[in-house]
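Q: For a teaching handout, I want to show students what a protein-ligand complex looks like in token form. Below are the inputs, and the small molecule is (S)-3-Hydroxyhexanoyl-CoA. Please produce the holo structure.
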Amino acid sequence: MGAPVSYDVVDGMGVISIDNPPVNALSHAVRSGILDGIRTAADDASAAVVIRCEGRTFIAGADITEFGKPPKDPWLPEVVDAIEALDKPVVAAIHGTALGGGFEVALGSHYRIALKSAKVGLPEVKLGLLPGAGGTQRTPRLAGVQAALDLMTSGAPIPASSAEAAGLVDRVVDDGLDAAALAYARELVDEGAACRRTSELPPSSADPSIFAEYKRQLERRAHGQLAPQKIVDCVEAASRLPFPEGSIVEREAFMACMASPQSAGLRHMFFAEREAAKINGLDKSTPLREVAKVGVIGAGTMGSGIAMNFANAGMQVYLLEVNDDALGRGLETIAKNYAGGVKRGKMSEEQALATRERITGTTDYADLADADLVVEAVFEDLGLKQDIFERLDEVCKPGAILATNTSYQDVNKIAAATSRPADVIGLHFFSPAHIMKLLEVVRGDATADDVLATCMKLAKAIRKIPVVSGVCYGFIGNRMLQHYGREANLCLIEGATPETIDTAMQQWGMAMGPMRVFDLAGLDVGYKARQGLPPEERGDPRAFVIPDALVEMGRLGQKTGAGLYTYDPDTRDYRFDAESLEVIETQAKELGIERREIDASEIVDRLIFSLINEGMRIVEEGIAQRPSDIDVVYVYGYGFPAWRGGPMFYADTVGLDEVYKRVCEFRDRFGEENWAPAPLLERLAGEGRSLAEWASDPSS
Ligand code: 3H9
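A: Here is the structure, written as tokens, with (S)-3-Hydroxyhexanoyl-CoA included.
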């Protein structure tokens, strides 16, 4: 392998080229190479220097795989300072994305030129970190305090044109970046332009009260997270202190973040998300099927949202319903959603119209004859789904992928209704389907490799994060959720209130407490499912008598203005009312339960450890390919805090012996039926091994 950084003199300019696929991350070799290039340029006859990259992008940041390992000189701050200190103009030429440490290299350069299609950003916060190579000190000096805070605490990249407007980029070109960068360098030399050193600018002035206020806002938007708060401290330092002193504040804050479990969790999630897209045992050269035309069956909330995903990605969609009324309602929902997107500034009126027009409503299966993929999204009735698949088998062209959006039903039984089970797969979207990132891709026993590979690729095209699941009741996410939901309901009847449960879980980091989630989803959903089962199959009555009683009173949840909480019809503000409390107390009394105080730690442990225990079974059975896939499901589908790394990573941070001990305590208190420890948990705890160690060799 050649060196990842080269230095050449082109037209009298020193050119430092970085070629470190796939994203030119700042590995040790790259940092050393850039420093060598700068030192060479300092001593040669070049008039100025251009820093550029090969491949699809400018530097995408520090090499995340090196985090957690012993640091090796030169550190990035040293490299960036050396760039800035050079006595000849340095121009950074940006294409693709200049992110994190990559953008800091550009900020250390004296001038920045970017392709119009490029984006720049400081996304360290998404890894529980902050820019650690001068970014927190240089950004506010160039763009002002407010813009710097927004850029760094959101972590969202901005287009080159916005960066230019903010003073972070000097020139934007449509194409021909290399030539334009050389010409820019020549121009600077001819003009005798100064080596513009951002570190020499005075501290960026700001009203000191802005920082406390910004921190308060972050407490709401990024509750419990360390890095965003530390970013504010660093920017505050940049508004007050000379650069070298501000840099010391930055370094200390960076090290504190790097050592935090939050960053470890978020870094785990970064790799888990990318790992989830990989299918064990599947040949990388598996040919893919082409998907340009998609059919969606069912224009309810799910079907409409699913249709939007494909239309947004430029595909032609046929949305099928049984009659014109139902179809009209679905198309109306879609129109409303797009209008909302326009209102929120997500797309222009024209874009919304053009995208909507890619969705055609139909009541005729013949319109699906030439679809490359059909997604069924009707309600959860196995017989109905099997009828639909029988019909699809008759009308669809050979090679069409036939997918079901079922949340619970047996994909193998649905596939068996067709003469082509190899073409059948589960594509389980999460509500609202046009927004939620997660897609469970359910591999049936007969699903063909190319169908699976095509769906994984397609998921990326529609901007979803796919996770493969085997077939079982509820797949990965909902199978685990049953246990979480059961414990939440048991805490409720045993003595907690909806508020104490939700507060405990939200304080711990869940995006929304389970009681509000139940109300949002509708208490009638579980009620109807239970009514369809004989009483002996409904499970532990203590876990459902309260929601059932509320449903029978007409309190179905948010949609009827009351469920476990009552809701303000205009603001959707919620509060716990006396009627709900009465239902809870009456049901407890009827089952002979004496209600007691339940503290937050018991609530959190019961809910989270029940998830983990079931997750252990799911990995051992091979329903999930690896523990980290479960983490992706929970973070992107169920509002689990990413900074805790998902439930399985969290289990390792607690220690499996501790998790096992707690599960055994709950088994002894609450019974074997709900709390039998998963065999894998018991074994690994006994062996003193972590789940991560086991995952690296699951046969051991
Ligand atoms: C930082 O810079 C700290 C500094 O401030 C201070 C230091 C002192 N390192 O995402 P993709 C791999 S913190 C190592 O699928 P895309 C990735 O794992 C860093 N590896 O491609 C994957 O590997 P595989 C701040 C990295 O086109 C492959 O590249 N920077 C890194 O969809 C392709 O990735 C960031 O947080 C990395 N930095 O998206 C940027 N980045 O093929 C993080 C990627 O084996 N990166 N890989 O699975 C991204 O946001 C996206 O990767 C990017 C490309 C937008 C660049």
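A: Two things your students might notice: Residues 22-23, 25, 57, 60-65, 76, 97, 99-101, 104, 123-124, 127, 129, 131-133, 135, 274 surround (S)-3-Hydroxyhexanoyl-CoA (CB under 6 Å). The mean pLDDT is 96.
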